Amino acid sequence: MTAVRIGDREVGPGLETFVVAEIGINHNGDLSLAKKLIGAASGAGVQAVKFQKRTPELAVPPGQGDLPRETPWGVIPYVEYRERLEFGQEEYEEIDSFCRSMGITWFASCWDEDSVDFIDQFDPPCYKIASACLTDDALLAHTRAKGRPILLSTGMSSLEQIDHAVEVLVREDLVLMHTTSTYPSAPEELNLSVISRLAERYGVPVGYSGHEVGLAPTLAAVVLGACVVERHITIDRAMWGSDHAASVEPQGFSRLVRDIRMYESARGDGEKRVYDSERPVMERLRRVGL
Description:
Blueprint: E1 4-6, E2 9-11, E3 18-24, H1 31-44, E4 48-53, H2 56-59, E5 68-71, E6 74-77, H3 78-85, H4 89-102, E7 105-110, H5 113-120, E8 127-129, H6 137-144, E9 150-153, H7 159-169, E10 174-179, H8 194-202, E11 206-210, H9 216-223, E12 228-232, H10 250-267, H11 279-285
Parallel strand pairs: 3-4, 3-12, 4-7, 8-9, 9-10, 10-11, 11-12
Antiparallel strand pairs: 1-2, 5-6
Helix pairs in contact: 1-4, 1-10, 9-10
């Protein structure tokens, strides 16, 4: 299995886990909050932060644009709510500059072709394709045409749908992300064993995008072979917004990164050996066969 290069890092089995803090829309349309989340993610030791980019009039499903939505700005049409969450040129220039000053990588999930073109001006190291977009062949082909690595989320998708998406994207520079598209996800629906099945079926690196409450399943995903992990980050899980309840606060992100690095250190190379630190114990306790 060939590793995928994302920025200055190789991503693949046996390599250091690529940890992504998804800011997504947890900034609630507030650039200052976005910067706080970037800083918190950097402080936790992640490799990258991710945003979501939409052109609301293109990305909102038919029939949903006029539906009323309760928001901090009052009850407004769903499409207006989506517009209030979107950052434009000025905000993304500020995000790009701020991430560079923090020394942290950023990229985005783009939900429509115009958004792909918009984000491409910032020279992202990769693109993420959301589970909701897995069946959008035009978006997949447009994203692939940019020539950058792609992380493809596979939530709410059958193997046959994933087969087709992989055929459209081709396997080069592709990472599949196992996920369950509920917020938060129930532990019994995480199905982490799919990680190894995806790796065997497609022969590409496989990661995990978690929406569960807690950290243990995400660490377990790394143990089971996930070479990329992504969790939503928030300042406060009680904040208003659709993704905050399934997100991780900064202290939790720090623990998650710590525990992943501890596991990687403990994983070893599989060669059984007697360590020098064991020899005094062996000499003291073993009666025969020194």
